Amino acid sequence: MERGRRVADVQPQAKALSEIVALMARVRASGGTRTARKTSLVDARLARLGEIVVTIIKGQGQETRSRPARTGDYVVRNRCPETGNEEYLVSADKFAERYEATATAAGPDGWREFRSTGKTVRFLLLQEDDASFSFVAPWGEQMVAVPGDAIVQTLGDEQDVYRVARASFDCTYQVIGSKRVHP
Fold first, then answer.
1. Which residues of the chain have pLDDT under 50?
2. Any idea where the domains of the chain sit in the sequence?
3. Alpha-carbon distance 23 to 56, whole Å?
């Protein structure tokens, strides 16, 4: 992506989620994926019913737009100044699997500190010579992936594939080992 262009300005070729799942399978079969886990603390609050969260990445613009929040969903805010502490919606069931509250009490605005449970994910990093592309994320909205981004896939749920901006990935995930693996 040219310097100064925003993700929202890119008009990449659209891909179906099934194509991204197939891409991950091909790369995994060739030994080109690695594993990581999210290790950073985040802030989260209960989402308001029907709330739509627009994820903005500093310097890139809109990453994605959530579906309307349902009862029990959370708005999660990364602690990553490099990306503008982006916010995103997490469903109630995925939130319960992925985060646990710390001893810190919620503030008057409802935000509270949570720790990632460190679930292992599979990922690949898009190379500088890879073309940008878009795909429909599992929650039904289009995501744009650009060179340098991580494509992340939940182990045990191959349909749960999403883009993580490289700066956010570097800030919030810990790569497990240095070798490429295909678990």
1. 1-10, 181-183
2. 12-175
3. 26
